Amino acid sequence: MTDTSPYDLAQQAADALAEQTGVASHDLALVLGSGWLPAVDALGEATAEIDTTDLPGFSAAAVAGHSGKIRSIRAGERNLLVFLSRTHYYEGKGVDAVVHGVRTAARAGCRTIVLTNGCGGLRETWAPGTPVLISDHINLTGRSPIVGATFVDLTDLYSARLRQLCREVDPTLDEGVYVQFPGPHYETPAEIGMVRAIGGHLVGMSTTLEAIAAREAGMEVLGISLVTNLAAGIGGEPLNHEEVLEAGRAAASRMGDLLGRIVPRI
Ligand code: 8IG
Known about the structure:
Blueprint: H1 6-21, E1 28-31, E2 45-51, E3 69-75, E4 78-83, H2 95-107, E5 112-121, E6 130-139, H3 160-169, E7 174-180, H4 189-197, E8 202-204, H5 208-216, E9 220-230, H6 241-262
Parallel strand pairs: 1-4, 1-5, 5-9, 6-7, 7-8
Antiparallel strand pairs: 2-3, 3-4, 5-8, 6-9
Helix pairs in contact: 1-2, 2-5
The structure holds 8-iodo-guanine.
8-iodo-guanine (8IG) binds at residues 34, 118-120, 181, 183, 186-187, 203-205, 228-229, 231, 239, 244.
């Protein structure tokens, strides 16, 4: 017997998804990170909602505030595939598990993916609850979802076209470079000093591996961070997850409004 490749497993998940949702093909995928979950209702009426664990290759959600569900939403003429949770690298399930949702979305037909996250911000002007467009990333996990001699170009990973479209919807949106740490601990102040030195503006524990897998699959990528806290050492306060969730709840209506206005234009 041969092992199933991660790409074949994603195809199996996409087939099961089509069967369980009754939606043969999806157009646009969204991954909702910390603080973004309450925004889901602004996207439209759910056609179906399924547990990720009912699809091949997914494991149970591990973080408070992330539910292990996938929602299929009919929005205008298009079918949205919304992941209400993600698998994080720090769960130790491996990189393939982290990007399985992205690969499944690609096999389900999605040509575009919106990756959202909650993160720490390095600019003091970014109060908790500020959305920031991801212009580029620095992947400090030291890992790639791609194995073997496939040299994928990441020059324009975060679509300039989609960022421009977001700024038309909300001209106050800033941009920044997102730096992914492995986690699950937050950074030390010295590490945040390093982030500043290497050109980072946002710090988190997700998104970069998923963006790479999305690019490998040929998808157009939009990344939006919700700054839920000032990065370690910048605000002087210790960081805690409850505070992060609270900033998300407080920002929910703005994020819902933002996504609800962006998605129809993508
Ligand atoms: I929400 O300050 C959230 N996620 N690494 N650092 C890292 N991840 C985060 C942070 C943060 N805030």
